User: Fold these one by one.
Assistant:
Number 1:
Amino acid sequence: MGRLILVTGGARSGKSDFAERLARQLGGEDVVFIATAEARDDEMARRIAAHRQSRPATWQTLEAARDVGRAVVRAGEAATVLIDCLTLLVSNLLLADGEDTPPERSEAAVEAEVAALLDAVRASPATVIVVTNEVGLGIVPVNRLARQYRDLLGRANAVLAKAADEVYLLISGLPVEIKSLALRGNFP
């Protein structure tokens, strides 16, 4: 059975850097990187290119804008799988059929994606590290689509955090392992 580590925090908090260092520490050269980003504009294309260049050349990269559970299965016997990131995966699912997708359909798609990911993690021999953003600490978004996104990602994060063996929150580049803190308080 695989081990699940969730890495969360705000934008530019150091999540990806921390997750990559952790993946290198746990898997060395035997890491499969699952990238969920889609280049919907030039700025995102530049970000994707920079991320590709920063990863070790020995790591295998799988592109999976959807069906991340299937990509975990494709990773085979890798020691470590790094998924960066759930935030973009949920966005991809939310926008798959355009901005006017019925909320129930988006919710069902995200729930199915997270369930498939957890099934794949349980069946994998790997340590799977998932990077995600914590988007629920700010103001309530002004438009329906942004509120729907915040809610979908928040629920997906909660499901993964509950299933995870370790959960790290990054604040200003500093990782704090929060799952063990929650368990010490005997929270369900």
Number 2:
Amino acid sequence: MKGRCKEEICEEPSVDDPDVISLLIKLPCGTRFNRRFNKHHSVKELHDYVYAQDEAPRRYQIFTSFPRSPISGCSTDEVCSSKTLPLLKEAGLNKNDTLFVQSVDDDSTEETSDCDSDR
């Protein structure tokens, strides 16, 4: 599944693109990634980029740093269950933001595998 996400990730936009946002993404294990996204793309692109990382948890929610709040539509559960997700610009992300990935406890692996098969 992670391999498929890696293949489907859109090309990183140029730093000169006026619609670009640069994000510093921090995983629970301490790994950090810098990545540019087009603000007119869905939060699913952000979610899938994180999911494709080897160190990423299987289920998670992504939060803004300040004020700390979840990004709407950008949890594993929301991406798997919703057909319409907000754009990155609608999620309130700015030119340069820091995001935190928080693992979601998974009591049922059946739930996650059902989600993976739909993606």
Number 3:
Amino acid sequence: MNANTTTDTGAAGSLRFAVLLATWMQSANLPLPNAVLRLIQGSLSMTDDQAGWIFTAYLAASAITLPIAQWLAARFGLKRVYQAALALFMLGLVLATVSTTPLEFIGARIIQGLAAGVLGPLSMGIALETLAPEKRMKFGVTLTAAVLLGIATGPAIGGWIAEHFDWRPIFYISLPLSAYIFMVIALLLAEKKADKAPTYDFFGFTSFTVAMISLQMLLDRGERMNWFDSPEIWIEALACGLGLYLFFVHVMTRNVHFFNKSLLRDRNYVLSTLIFFAIGFVLLSTMALTSPMLDEILGYPPDTTGALTLPRGAGMVGAFLLTMRLPERFDRRLFVAIGVALVIYANWLMLGYSPLMDWPPVAIAGALQGFGIGMSMAALAKVAFSTLAPALRPEATGLYNLLRAYGSTLGVAIVQIYFFNNTQAMHQALGANITPYRGAASMSLPALEGINHLVTHQAAFIAVIDQFKILMVAMLVVSPLVLFLRKPAATN
């Protein structure tokens, strides 16, 4: 970027607005189909286990390109790579709207995710270079808030559009936004490229990525393929094990790689990253469970289903901004503890959901969970990086966000597995009580179908509650780590 970008207030402001919009857009498109899963499944003849891929495909794809975004910009040019990512994102949007099979739709989501993994970090890079150093931290908070706002508003936007039109137009809203961002970048962003080709640890990156993607495919495909009775699952398990083995050997035997061993020596960073991983595990998994529960089991329309994610989002964004604005004299460890406790309590409230409930319990539990997540994220951002050397912070930030992304994608996959298993088990347990001696023998076929439908809904609802228990346990497991955090130092 040219040096005069920071002095040209109008151009710099337009660039910041454009990348802020891109940050919101790529974040909102992740949960955008959440409130309309039933419509998508019916239109594309998509099975229940395939519905989980709508989220995991986007997340896993973005986790592939996220670590190499800065290298791509340095190697091929920031402007060129950013515009290519926008074009790829628009292609994914168009392909999603014209999909006629589950495979086509999942492929479109993968394309969107690959582009989103590049847009996120490069948007931050473009924005920060248009600002004076003393203003960068404040705008970084704004960018993170835009990510949270996207996650919060995506389902509500998708639900409202689908209720009044159809599910396919939910992706149209991002096409003019992408075109506007593309135009602003083309007109105002000067090309920036490294003087010489940068180096990158592709062996470490590839081995780690192969391991995580193989694990993701194993979890996503395991139920459908009957687990280790399938050669495919064995191949994915072996690829995951081999990838992890090569990655850890590489890290322990090489001095230069994309994962800096020095980060492991900082206790606050390691513990904060583990807690952040658990927050990622809960963040999207709750949404992936709540919206189908409201839409498919309780019969709420898509616009209401989407709107009930807004209290959670409002709590999340509000708590994040409030906690980031707290004076330095307040110990952030206390707010990490309060945030984690709120998330646990909110998930405990979710265990009390009932098929007879109205919407307030969902709104209250969602708002409390969102407030806890937002508070924890803001406080952890301070705790994690305050004890790190400034030279390590850019690399640490990338790894920190990458593990949150993997936490989300693995969380969605795991709750989907247990949901289907528990639904089948509960269906068998409930159905076993329907015997000829309880009147079933004298019922007509439509009546028996109605009973089976009722049993299926009851089993699915119980299975959803069981998954909220898994999310609560995940936060309980990491909660003791808060006690071992050191008091943050003043940020440099």
Number 4:
Amino acid sequence: MQPRQPLRIVSLAWAAGLLFATSAQAAEYTQLQPQASKITFDYQQMGVGMQGVFKAFSGQLRFDPAHADKASAVLEVDLASVDVDNDEANDELATKTWFNTPAFPKARFESTSVKALPTAGEYEVVGTLTIKGQKQTVTVPARFTEKAGQGVFEGKLTIQRGAFSIGEGAWKAFDIVANDVVVHFQLTAK
């Protein structure tokens, strides 16, 4: 009986060391770093590819790669921060016809589920996207990488502007400005 006691102590010490090493490697990312992040978009206008950027956004998240199913994210984009590299177009986008920023200053995405995919670092994020008072359930494919103590989430999502009443009146047709808008994101978190 006496010789088993040291073996038990060594086994417990080894298990505790393994547990500590595993928890030391696990990281939960909770602080979005807007200055190290970006949200851009592509669209077609009269058949020509155009780009834009949203310069201001904020968010809350909770993501641990070891427990992706418990992750959550809320992202709010300041629609008045849109920049399509043309001051006149930027002013037009703020009007009631497009974003109607006085009435709807922010677009919002709130996750409802996160699922790890078979490929390492690939995830599927489902959530509610709200723009201009219109809500749609969307599925966002995202890739996660860890770099220098930070987590980087990258992906893209195609939305139809018509589903969110972006472009009303004469702009409701898609002959000049296409319906599809591809939103690209690179979000960095600590």
